[in-house]
Amino acid sequence: MNRNHGWIIYSKKSIRPDPKDNAFDWMIEEAKKAGLNVEILFEEDIDLICDNEGLKILYQNKFKDIPTFVLLRSYCISIAKQLELLGVRTYNTSTALSNSLNKWYTHQLLTIKNIKMPKTLFTSNNSISYEKLSRQLGRKIIIKEIHGSKGEGVFLAESKEEFEYIIKNVKENILFQEYIETSCGRDIRVHVIGNRVVASVLRKSNKDFRSNYSQGGSAFSYDIDSCIEKIAVESTKALGLEIAGVDLLFGEEEILVCEVNGIPGFRTISATSKINIPREIFNYIKSTL
């Protein structure tokens, strides 16, 4: 087995119409500079087999030799778990990805590490009343689908009518969170690789309470202090992640952790600085093999 051979697994859903907007060639080039040989694979073309002969992986209906490492750019947790059982080093691990994909798991893990965040409530009872929740969380309530990223599946209810309409139309399990008015339309995204902050940006939106770049927000280079760096790194470690994007809110008195993304995009960094996130990722992978 070639020790420096790896896969990068994406979902076909992430492919952009304009080839120039995809990072595939960039990722392969930066991996090569780090002394790594990588292939791009798509999770939709991967089949997993468990039989009396053991665990196997098919790619495009053919058996494929497993690599030394895999960089996951999709939340394909079952694939990650099979690779790990076959002895493949994954970035991030299946457990860490599961912790970040499920927002409730994220908040549970942050809480036991005493990391500050907005007050959050989960219930399997979707008929919970606005009156009950507003007593806990305030008049304005953030409603989030438990699984989601890029600001998708996140809603703001400012009245009972809006709350009931959102609850009626959301299909997934959801959690409820207090609305941080002082951070409306702005947050900080901090990129952490190997317990080290490599970049940070301030994201803003004048049109939406969400500041995500993918939701039409703007991004600006932003310097953070050692206190914010510590929060970002500790949040990453709490979930078991090695590569993460930590989203921070401006609370009235302190910085609060909103979410921790296990497969962070890096378009905002590319647009606002000369920091090369793929280079940072592959240099880290190379150092840990």
TrEMBL record:
Keywords: ATP-binding, Ligase, Metal-binding, Nucleotide-binding
GO function terms (MF aspect): ATP binding; coenzyme F420-2 alpha-glutamyl ligase activity; metal ion binding
Gene Ontology CC: cytoplasm
Coiled coil: none
Pfam families the UniProt entry points to: RimK (PF08443)
Gene3D superfamilies referenced in this protein's UniProt entry, alphabetically: 3.40.50.20, ATP-grasp fold, A domain, ATP-grasp fold, B domain
Positions of the ATP-grasp domain: 107-286
NCBIfam families in the record: rimK_fam
Protein name: Gamma-F420-2:alpha-L-glutamate ligase
High-level lineage: Bacteria, Bacillati, Bacillota, Clostridia, Peptostreptococcales
